[in-house]
Structures are given as structure tokens and as C-alpha cells.
Amino acid sequence: AVVSTQSTGELKLQVSVHDAPVELDNNSFGISGLKLMGARHDTGKLKITEDIMSDLPYTRLSWVRQDDVKAIGKKITLPVYLNNMRTILVETLDFATDEEKFYERGVAILCTSLT
């Protein structure tokens, strides 16, 4: 918010998942080691899986003005929890998908798989 001189109410986190670290600008940061419970990331979209947990190799989060958010088509808003106890909600993030039933399956992002 300080770098872009925007208020935090005008900004939104935009998510992109990559196989390896990517270049970051002043409005972005990268995270590796996030865990995805009940789904997997495949070719730019989330898909339901029978696996309990999968890795998000490298996630880039970028602060963008809400007016500049890129349309991602069909999306799902997933909770990001601190750990697998799911008691501390860190954030919610929008991901592209073609599927349904994410909420019924309890799909979520974990910052760590430790309790």
C-alpha cells in the first residue's frame, strides 16, 4: 500500500502458482512450501484430488488495485490456515478452477502441515 500510494481498502491479493521461483516486483512476494489439502494445482487451475495433501511449489502474491484485478474466469475462494488444526485463518485467496465441490471437500491452503 505504501509503495503504490493506495489505501489497503483499494487493494486485493492476486495469486499465481508456478513450478519455480519467478521475478517479483515491488508489489509482489513469493512463498514456497504451502500445502493444498484435498486438491492439486495443474496447468494454472485447481483440481479436486483423492490425495490428502499436495504441494504448491511456488506461490506469487501480488497486491493490485481492485479495478486492475485480472479476470480468471471461474474461481474458488479458499481459506489459508496457519496449520492443519485450522483454528487460525490467515487470509482467503481466489484461485482459478473448472470444478465444483471444493467447499464440500473442505479444500484449504495450509502455511505448514505441522500442528
What does this protein look like?
This protein is mainly β. 3% of the residues lie in helices and 54% in strands. The chain is built from one helix and six strands. It has one helix at residues 102-105; strands at residues 11-18, 28-42, 45-65, 75-81, 89-96, 108-110. Strands 1-3-2-6-4-5 form a six-stranded mixed beta sheet. A hairpin with a 7-residue loop joins strand 4 (75-81) and strand 5. The radius of gyration is 14 Å and the shape is globular. The model has no long low-confidence stretch (mean pLDDT 88).
Radius of gyration: 14 Å
Mean pLDDT: 88
Biggest sheet: strands, sense, closure? Answer: 6 strands, mixed
Separation of the first and last Cα atoms: 32 Å
**Tally the helices: what do you get?**
1
Low-confidence stretches: none
In percent, how helical is the residue content?
Answer: under 10%
- The global form is globular
Order of helices and strands: EEEEEHE
Strand arrangement in the largest pleated sheet: 1-3-2-6-4-5
Secondary-structure-based class equals mainly beta
The count of strands amounts to 6
Fraction of residues in β-strands: over 45%
